[in-house]
């Protein structure tokens, strides 16, 4: 699922996505596959294998192949993400390792993959966030920056967001509220940054 989703997101940004075979949980196989992909591509994206389990070999493979710029992000969802630079024969190519969870992979690709795309390939940049007005109080307890699913509707040119008991990103009116680091109470009527579902 992740490979086709990320390919579609790459192509929506104007790139050409190339799919490679799914790999076993073997560090040597992962390293060789990444080397092979860099021969053909300007950027390599992986999904999965970035947590701290015994079979999460991708994080070790990318550390051997590239110079890691950062590993893990203080966001929810999407903490197990890493970015590195593959350097060989005078060329420098980006490597982005995403989480295996599909919503986390989509979010982290949009946040970090989009920034890499703009920087390395000199593409135009459109700020990804808009403002929405909360229709209810919202208490945030998570210490990390949090991207929280909400329902959103547009009224007289203004976006309004509400938090249902259950919501999924694929629902037609779903979006993501962007809640800053640290716990606090967001009050009804407060303006909060928002990522619209159709961006993905």
From TrEMBL:
Q: Which residues form a coiled coil?
A: none
What pathway does this protein act in?
A: Cofactor biosynthesis; molybdopterin biosynthesis
Keyword Transferase present in the record's keywords: the answer is yes
GO CC field:
cytosol
Q: Which InterPro entries match?
A: MoaB/Mog-like_dom_sf, MoaB/Mog_dom, MoeA-like, MoeA_C_domain_IV_sf
Q: What is its EC number?
A: 2.10.1.1
> Which cofactors are reported in the record for this sequence?
Mg(2+)
Q: Which GO terms describe its biological process?
A: Mo-molybdopterin cofactor biosynthetic process
Q: Which reaction does it catalyse?
A: adenylyl-molybdopterin + molybdate = Mo-molybdopterin + AMP + H(+)
Q: Which GO terms describe its molecular function?
A: metal ion binding; molybdopterin molybdotransferase activity
Q: What class of enzyme is it?
A: transferase
Per the entry, what this protein does is:
Catalyzes the insertion of molybdate into adenylated molybdopterin with the concomitant release of AMP.
Q: Can you tell me which family this protein belongs to?
A: Belongs to the MoeA family.
Q: What is this protein called?
A: Molybdopterin molybdenumtransferase
Q: Which organism encodes this protein?
A: Helicobacter suis
């Amino acid at each position: 699922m992740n490979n086709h989703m990320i390919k579609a997101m790459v192509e929506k940004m104007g790139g050409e996505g190339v799919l490679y075979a799914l790999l076993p949980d073997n560090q040597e196989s992962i390293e060789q596959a990444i080397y092979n992909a860099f021969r053909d591509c300007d950027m390599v994206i992986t999904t999965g294998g970035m947590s701290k389990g015994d079979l999460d070999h991708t994080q070790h493979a990318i550390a051997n192949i590239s110079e890691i710029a950062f590993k893990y992000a203080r966001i929810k969802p999407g903490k197990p993400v890493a970015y590195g630079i593959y350097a060989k024969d005078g060329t420098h190519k980006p490597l982005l390792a995403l989480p295996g969870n599909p919503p986390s992979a989509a979010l982290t690709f949009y946040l970090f993959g989009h920034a890499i795309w703009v920087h390395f390939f000199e593409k135009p940049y459109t700020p990804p966030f808009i403002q929405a007005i909360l229709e209810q109080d919202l208490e945030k307890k998570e210490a990390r920056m949090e991207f929280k699913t909400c329902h959103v509707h547009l009224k007289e040119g203004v976006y309004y967001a509400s938090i249902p008991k259950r919501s999924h990103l694929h629902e037609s009116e779903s979006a993501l509220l962007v809640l800053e680091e640290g716990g606090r109470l967001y009050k009804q009527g407060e303006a909060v940054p928002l990522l619209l579902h159709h961006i993905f």
